[in-house]
Design brief:
It contains 2 helices and 8 strands, in the order αββββββαββ. With 170 residues, it is of the alpha+beta class. It has one domain: Immunoglobulin-like.
Length: 170
């Protein structure tokens, strides 16, 4: 009985002494400070009336991946191209998403921005070309949308580039 009691006390003393070998206080790291940024106003740049052909896109690394849905609102009275943030692993690390629309009707280039805090369902809406008539549909005039993502290192990556039709019939 004495042997069991003595070994139990020895085990308890060893446990207490093992916990005392850690440093007294962990080293504190400085907290990052948020820098408020002001965004420049939306830019509209008139260009030639032909919309250029969509080019190649890149893929973000998997740990920064984001999903953006770009579509027309299909309204003839107030046509808009709506970009919606759908989430991804880059939700908290991607600082800036830029959506650029080149209108087929007048060739204007309009850029809108999504900044932190990003959340699922955050949208940016840009006025698109008015409802096309039969002649412009025959010529295939459609607005072009591009989505550029700025990585945490400051690199711009184009993740979406496509024509957005006024209305699509699925």
């Amino acid at each position: 009985m004495r042997l069991i009691f003595g070994s139990a006390i020895l085990v308890v003393l060893l446990l207490f002494s093992a916990g005392c070998t850690q440093p007294a206080q962990p080293v504190a790291t400085p907290a990052p400070t948020a820098v408020p940024t002001t965004l420049p106003p939306t830019t509209i740049v008139p260009v030639a009336t032909s919309v250029s052909t969509p080019g190649p896109t890149q893929t973000l690394p998997s740990n920064w991946g984001v999903d953006i849905q770009v579509a027309s609102n299909n309204e003839a009275i107030d046509p808009q191209i709506v970009a919606t943030f759908r989430g991804g692993k880059g939700l908290n690390v991607i600082p800036l998403i830029e959506v650029t629309v080149t209108r087929a009707s007048d060739g204007a280039v309009v850029t809108e921005r999504m900044t932190q805090p990003l959340f699922i369902g955050k949208t940016v809406s840009i006025k698109s070309s008015p409802k096309p008539d039969a002649a412009s549909e025959a010529w295939g005039l459609k607005d072009r949308a591009e989505v550029w993502v700025t990585t945490p290192q400051g690199e711009r990556v184009k993740i979406f580039d496509a024509y957005i039709p006024f209305r699509s019939y699925n």
